[in-house]
Amino acid sequence: MTDADDLRRRTAELLAARPPATTGRLDFLRARFDAGLAWVHFPEGLGGLDAPRSLQAVVDAELAAAGAPDNDPGRIGIGLGMAAPTLLRFGTDEQKQRFLRPLWTGEEVWCQLFSEPGAGSDLAALATRAVREGAGADGTGGDWIVDGQKVWTSSAHQARWAILIARTDPDVPKHRGITYFVCDMTDPGVEVRPLRQITGEAEFNEVFLTGVGIPDAHRLGAVGEGWKVAQTTLMNERVAIGGSRIPREGGMIGVAAADWRARPELRTHDLHQRLLTLWVEAEAARLTGERLRQQLSQGQPGPEGSGMKLAFARLAQEISGWEVEFLAEDGLTYDDWTMRRPDGVDFTGREAGYRYLRAKGNSIEGGTSEVLLNIVAERVLGLPPEPRTDKDVAWKDLPR
């Protein structure tokens, strides 16, 4: 079994063969993937070595100390956190070989075509249709023609590929008539329009799909079982949003604590007590996230990720609110209201006004807090589920 010493040896061999100082960034990343040091817990040949997930930190530390480039995870977070684990679990061998390497190196950016104007919190109510054409006598092959609209799509303006769920059978209940696809964002039937946010930026998009042809070879999972596949994506998404590794007093609470230390003239007893409470809660959330990552090393993420995402959203909003109040008029400053399309979100490198505004979306993206509370209640605490009158009703018969 691969252990820490073996990984250090393999990393040293990579650094000797491809010195970061004299190797192009992309060449180094490709070589790292081929050496199995991208995701050490992935299978051999797919960026990994079938090693324990917890040993990834060993590789990352060795490469960081040597000044090796990373793959800019903030830019390709949807591919890394959502598409990759879904491809690994449900993709064919051909799909894994085609998509995983350029996904990890950042050569191909991914986005997520899930939410719709009428299917956000109730995602299974989605109306985007996929109709099959040209299937063979054995029911395989052919293309799926997709028509519909998606919304709140991060990185759609940069993406080469998208993970997409669409309705393929309107005659069965809503959770059972969905199929999961990989969609080519360069198809002429794909139109991406920016959505300007409260920050002034257009980090999100709406996407219109008109006669988009998707080959059956780009389907993940069985026809009609897209909801099952999507659950893997959604669980990993919540872990990616709420369970990222940060040091003690890192992230937004670190910025707030630094403000407190730097501006003694603004301190009050009430603000001090509130900051202490937020600091303790942020530390508890950080340690819970560390425990969740240890659980992940033993298998697929479970509903615990929903709890972490809930905590992240609440803390981000409360900490940013505290910071704006503490900084008084300085907390209202904002650098640029120009409409622009950023590469990602920066919760610690921008001013307090940006953090306060951007954090408002944390309780919506990746699953609304209200929906996640239901998931935690039913799947973690084992409480009785809410009555669902549409459970056995065909999607086409649901009122809209």
Characterize the structure shown.
This protein has 400 residues and is α+β, with helices and mostly antiparallel strands. The chain contains 11 helices and 8 strands. It has helices at residues 4-17, 25-34, 56-65, 77-90, 93-105, 226-242, 251-262, 269-296, 304-327, 352-358, 369-380; strands spanning 110-113, 129-133, 143-151, 161-167, 178-184, 190-195, 204-215, 219-220. A 4-stranded mixed beta sheet has the order 1-4-5-8. A 4-stranded antiparallel beta sheet has the order 2-3-7-6, with no helix packed on it. A hairpin with an 8-residue loop joins strand 6 (190-195) and strand 7 (204-215). The chain starts with a helix and ends in a 20-residue tail after the last helix.
Keywords:
400 residues; 4-stranded mixed sheet; alpha+beta; globular; 11 helices
What is this structure's SSE topology?
Layout: H1 4-17, H2 25-34, H3 56-65, H4 77-90, H5 93-105, E1 110-113, E2 129-133, E3 143-151, E4 161-167, E5 178-184, E6 190-195, E7 204-215, E8 219-220, H6 226-242, H7 251-262, H8 269-296, H9 304-327, H10 352-358, H11 369-380
Parallel strand pairs: 1-4
Antiparallel strand pairs: 2-3, 3-7, 4-5, 5-8, 6-7
